[in-house]
Each structure stands twice: as structure tokens, then as C-alpha cells.
Amino acid sequence: MRRPFVAGNWKLNRGPADAVALAEALRSAVSPSIPATVAVFPTTLSVHAVGKCLSGSAVAVGVQDVAPVALGAWTGDTSAAMARAIGCDFALVGHSERRARHQESIESTRAKIVAVLDAGLLPVLCVGETLDERQTGRAEATVLAQLAGALDGLPDDRLSGLSLAYEPVWAIGTGQVATPDVAQAMHATLRGWLGANRPVWVAEDLRILYGGSVAPGNAAELLAMPDIDGALVGGASLDAASFLAIVDAALRGA
Ligand code: PEP
């Protein structure tokens, strides 16, 4: 039984004061005994304040990206080890906005996963195809190449804390959510690849989140699908009530 996982990606929104206000609303609404993983990923400058606000609560905190090294001459980057030191539990790796705007390669996602694991954080690896890749029949090949490349050389025993987020690029921030059948099919493909290439427990235990225009009105039918274990939520996570409605849908779909 995979525990539902709902994550809010705040992207480059909510500076420290606004981020803490949003975190406070979540802290008071999420029960300490909730049978789900709930996490938020504030913009880097807000992570520390949000972490302090959510410390001891059922809402975990993560960073949206990390450097592939723990420290050194990496101007502007974020250290996974330092994120861990201030109380983060999770890190996103390979979000499509970073792949597209920061030319992040498959090799770089692999190095970042290692850095995240070395720091004691749990990675959430994002994969997803563009509209062109889907329309030309290359969606599965693209997503599986992103998955296989990121995990290449990683021993099985390092995969126990990994989660995946399937985020079709054409669905992110567009309001054009994947249908439950389209999302379920890709989640099953990802799980099938893991089952064929890694021990069975990896495929059975690993949580695969769907991301791309998830909102209170469409979450329930997505989260009811057998291979959709949660949601990575962008825009709708900036409003506490919307995010909490998606958390509720995940609990009902579990
Ligand atoms: C995201 O970028 O991770 C995302 C899922 O965004 P949105 O929900 O706004 O489509």
C-alpha cells in the first residue's frame, strides 16, 4: 500500500512573509496523524522561514532544485546538504522548467539525485514529454529515457526513498490537464519499466505523482487511478484551500 503524497511546488512565488502566511494556514489545517505525505517546495529564499514555521508539523519542506555537489564554486546554486541542515526532507530534481530554461540534461539529473541522496534528502524526480513529443508518438520513449538516464548506475538500495512525478510539459500551467486515462497509462509504463529493470519492490513501493494543472475540480478522478499515488501541484498550491482540497482528494483516492 503506497501512502499518498501531495506536494506543492510554489516555484518563484511567495517571498518569506507571504510564504510563512501560507505555511501557517497549512500547518493549522493538516492533522499531525494524516495518513499521507504532504510537502511544500517554497522558493529558495523562503525555505528557511517556511521550515521553521512547519517544524514539528505534518507538512514537510523541500527545495525545488539542488547543485550536483554539496558545496564549492557553484555561484547561485542550492546545496542539498545545507537544505538538509535547515530541516528540509525533499528535493525536486529535473523539473521541466529547469530542463528547458536551464538546459538541465539527463546526466545532470543523475548527478543531482546522487547529491540529494548523499545529503539525506528524498528526491522527487520529475519526468515528462513536450506536446511535440506526444503528438509525434515519442511520449513514452522520452519519459523512459529521462527515467533510465537519471537512475543509471544508482544501486537498487538507494531507490527506496525516491518518488517520481510524471508531469507532461503541455499540462503544466496551461489548465490542460491530462485525462485520468492518459496519466494512468504513463504511470503504468513507468512502473512497468521499474518492474522490468529493478527489483519488484522498487516498482511496488515507489510513489508516482501526477503533475500538470491539478486543481480541486480534477484531482479526485486522477487520484482514484491505481498507479497515481499523489500529485505535484503548482498554481493550485498557492492557495491553502485549493491545496488542502487536493490533499483531501488524495486521501479519498488512496
Ligand atoms: C508544476 O510545475 O510542477 C506544476 C504541476 O504546475 P501546475 O500545477 O501549475 O500546472
Helices, strands, pairings?
Blueprint: E1 5-9, H1 16-29, E2 37-41, H2 44-54, E3 59-63, H3 80-85, E4 90-93, H4 96-101, H5 106-118, E5 122-127, H6 131-135, H7 139-151, E6 163-166, H8 180-197, H9 200-205, E7 207-211, H10 216-223, E8 230-233, H11 240-253
Helix pairs in contact: 1-2, 5-7, 7-8, 10-11
The chain binds phosphoenolpyruvate.
Report on the architecture of this protein.
The chain is an alpha/beta fold and 254 residues long. 45% of the residues lie in helices and 15% in strands. The protein contains eleven helices and eight strands. Strand 2, helix 2 (44-54) and strand 3 (59-63) form a beta-alpha-beta unit. The model has no long low-confidence stretch (mean pLDDT 97). Bound molecules: phosphoenolpyruvate (PEP). The site of phosphoenolpyruvate has 13 residues, from strand 8.
In short:
With 254 residues, the chain is α/β, with parallel strands linked by helices. The chain has helices spanning 16-29, 44-54, 80-85, 96-101, 106-118, 131-135, 139-151, 180-197, 200-205, 216-223, 240-253, and strands at 5-9, 37-41, 59-63, 90-93, 122-127, 163-166, 207-211, 230-233. The protein has eleven helices and eight strands.
